[in-house]
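Can't attach files on this board, so I'm pasting raw text. These are the components:
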Amino acid sequence: MELATIEELEAPTMEIPQATQPEIKTIPEKMIAQNLNCFFGKTQAIKNVTLSIPTQKVLAIIGPSGCGKSTFLRSLNRMHEVAGGTMTGTVLLDGLNIYDSDPVVVRRRVGMVFQKANPFPMMSIFDNVAAGLRLNGLGDKNKVNEIVERSLKQAALWDEVKDSLNKSGMSLSGGQQQRLCIARTLAVDPEVVLMDEPASALDPISTAKIEELIYDLKKNYTITIVTHNMQQAARVSDYTAFFYVGELIEVDDTKTMFTAPRKKRTEDYITGRFG
Amino acid sequence: MERRFEKELESLKTTLIRMGSVVEEHCKLAIKSVFEEDVPAAQKIIDSDDRINSFEIEIDNAVIDILALQQPVASDLRLILAAQKISNDLERIGDHAVNIAESTVQFSKTRPKEPSMEIPKMSELAVAMLRDALDSFVHVSPELAQAVLTRDDLIDEMNRSMTMEVVELLQKNKKFIEGGLELVRLSRNLERIADLATNIAEEVIFLAQARIVKHHAEEKKTGPVEKDAN
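---
Top answer:
Structure tokens for the assembled complex are below.
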């Protein structure tokens, strides 16, 4: 038995890992996108994507800029068409195609939180949360008070603003404004909450609060979050989907995606070797 | 452009391979010192164990830095986890090489008249398993790692039969107690080297295929699937 010297040893090479077969998902689906194609004019942003969104779980969508992840998110509550886009395919919410439904009703059931906090500038903190309720015709003051308090508590903002509900929403910090927008979204009692980079403009403390909030909210809501921050996707989500140039490359439980992804392109992206 | 992170990973792998080479060399020299009754060579092994300990600390520090600063995922994460466990296994193999070298010193005082025939075979097998486990890491070869695992039962059996042999010897000749116990100790150290080589091979399978095979963890699960080309 001769000992090989370091020089004699071949340079180590990493083989492509093989993952174990993902377990069959038994979680019921809240929404399903089927053969979804989204376009802006002639440009196709989403290419034949079929993806289930499991009930009361957090699905994170990751991928490089321009991969279509925000377009996909917006197609789930018909915001894509507001931005001038067109689509083919179906998006089912509890088995019914949202594109055969009233978009206002769809957006009430499928709420959205945007990258940049966008409180209504002329409204107080209270009115920001109550706006959607009033728009939906709720006039009972006690009921409105009750829902505003509940929504602010759900958004983990109540303790910080309960004594200043009449102050302008714009008086809050960036992180508080984002939680105010989450409270506003929750006030109309959606079933699904879509979040597009909800913490990308926030400091680490505010980001941690939003992430804790997402974790708590999944007890009652189905959540889909688009994020550029892969550590954030790993921390908050149960499932992760990887998009690349408009295609869904891989979706799996988050632990598998970040320890042993099945596709080489996913591996290369999450390990920072491309993208 | 090669990233700094990839250089750090390469450096970690290189350090681990160097540590493996030193540990393998220590095992071979310790065993040789037993057969050749070479006490000075054995003493050299005992005195140079610190070198192996330093490797372990160097790898620990590199792992802490990479985990804290780079937040690795997927195959990078598996490499780092595997590297730390393998370096720990190698350090313990180094300790067993020291134990074997100490046996050389003891045998120089109480060499048994009828040394077991199993010891040369066990030595050869333990060193071969260690060498193959290290090669499986260098080449990231789950097949070679699997071949190491299949040999573990054989050396366990040799250790049992060696112990029985010494017991029989002791029943015949009570004067042989010290030498006999030393033989059992030697056999046990060889068997432990093989066990730790098996641990290394298990880590290589985890690194290459993301499968946890130790403690028969996989027996009730499905096997690996073909990697998709996408």
